[in-house]
Amino acid sequence: MSTYPNYVRTLLLNQASGYADTLAEEYVSPDFLPRELPAAFTKIRSVLFGGTPDRQMLNFRLYQLMQVLHATELVEYVTQDDARITYLPFDRDELFYDAFVADVSATSGTTGTLNVLGTLAPDEANGIIYHKWRVLVNFGNTVTVTEIAPDSQQEVSTYALTNGLSNAISLVGSNLQFNFSGNPDDSWYIEVVARPSQNMADILATLKDVVSSADEQVLFGQSPAEPYLTFKNLWQRHEQYAYQLGGLLLAMAFQTRNLSPA
């Protein structure tokens, strides 16, 4: 059985490499092949990450989940198959400060400025936290706003300038607005990552509600042997959330390594 750096994280991510410039990205071996997951795991992942999570959400949540696993002696299971880890220490300032500030970049020749107004609300049910737009000032007092991610849609709005500054205009597909000072043909790209609001206690509470006895059989087996018996006991009986959640995460990772590639 092949192993990789960041082995447990890679199994929980269960996606291929190739996202080097993405928020909180960690090394994923190019040799890793995502596994075909059973329905029980898909249900659990929808609670952990959202129904159709983007890579940014996966990475952000995995940063939190790996902290849980490393906070206790359960870390021994994280490193037992492959001790090579690139995500330590847990001091990624960009996840707490820089990541959730709107990044506005003017295209070549643009002389004006653009301000993003508001705070982007995360779509945690689906796991969508990354958004990107292009804003283009047209002749005739209109502005074209094109959503690039997560969806592809476009709106054309009229604007008026007061003391050189436009009125507030909606960023299509979000709760955000923007205003600008500029001229026709000025354009900008806007990238925003929404901060997820759920904490580990919230997630654990939801998991306790939705994980059925049938799901537990998929996670731990019908007659669990070690280490699955330990994982099951932690999940079902331990008083501390880090051990409960850790037991579930480790069982899912260990079972995933034995599954066939998708």
Describe the structure.
The protein is of the alpha+beta class. It folds into two domains: 7-92 and 197-256, no CATH class; 95-193, no CATH class. 32% of the residues lie in helices and 19% in strands. The protein contains eight helices and ten strands. The protein has helices spanning 7-13, 39-49, 55-70, 75-79, 200-210, 213-220, 228-237, 241-256, and strands spanning 103-106, 113-117, 130-137, 142-149, 153-158, 161-162, 165-166, 169-170, 177-181, 187-193. The chain has a five-stranded antiparallel beta sheet, with no helix packed on it. Strands 2-9-8 form a three-stranded antiparallel beta sheet, with no helix packed on it. The protein has a two-stranded antiparallel sheet with strand order 6-7. Helix 1 crosses helix 8 (241-256), helix 2 (39-49) packs antiparallel against helix 5 and helix 7 runs antiparallel to helix 8. It is elongated and about 70 Å long. It starts with 6 loop residues before the first helix and ends in a 6-residue tail after the last helix. The mean pLDDT is 96.
